[in-house]
Amino acid sequence: MSAISVGPADGLIVVDLQVDFCPGGALGVPEGDEIVPLVNRLLTVPGWFRVATRDWHPADHISFAAQGGIWPPHCVADSPGAAFHPDMAQGSIDLVVSKAAQKDAEAYSGFDGTTLPVELREKGVRRIFVCGLATDYCVRATALDGRKEGFEVVVLEDAVRAVDVEPGDGERAVEEMREAGCTFARSEDISG
Ligand code: VGL
Ligand code: ZN
Fold first, then answer.
1. Could you report the average pLDDT of every consecutive run of 10 residues in the chain (192 residues)?
2. Is residue 82 lining ligand 1, measured as CB closer than 6 Å?
3. Domain count, the chain
4. Of 12, 112, 129, 170, which has the fewest beta carbons less than 10 angstroms from its beta carbon?
5. Residue 156 lies in domain
6. Beta strands 190-191 and 4-5, pairing class
7. Is 134 in the pocket of ligand 1 (CB under 6 A)?
């Protein structure tokens, strides 16, 4: 796909671009911070609806090792690690969606247990562009749920990064998203 012009029926979803998911953070995604300039450029594109999701856990969340989960503690609500990356252009965000905020439930998808689907429909959004962290977890789940919710889903392939707990997880996630009907584009192809 090449040049894509976006407008009011489009939404940008920036997934979990948070301190704890960037290098040096509690659950740092390799090169996670490298997408910040790309995301900031996307946030300057006029005309579309700009959403940022954030992982927003209680201190005793079920996904943390102390509770038997697979992750170190990360993105504890209101902690410094849960903040958006300090260089992210937060002023341009129209809606912040907090997820996995209940102790007993994991929610990798920005659609899971949030107002996101309703808000997107209320705004008349039919196509979403997904970028952020991490390709193999929350980006994947958000993109797949976007399809299930009936949205056209475009994944911005240069503006995502994978955790790769197992080598190849990121590539497998890309394949799954493709099989579910997501398409892929590069962030520089997007304009207003
Ligand atoms: C995520 C692992 C644990 C993500 C969230 O945002 O991709 N990954 N919690
Ligand atoms: Zn989490």
1. 92 98 98 98 97 98 98 98 98 98 98 98 98 98 98 98 97 98 98 95
2. no
3. 1
4. 112
5. 4-191
6. parallel
7. yes
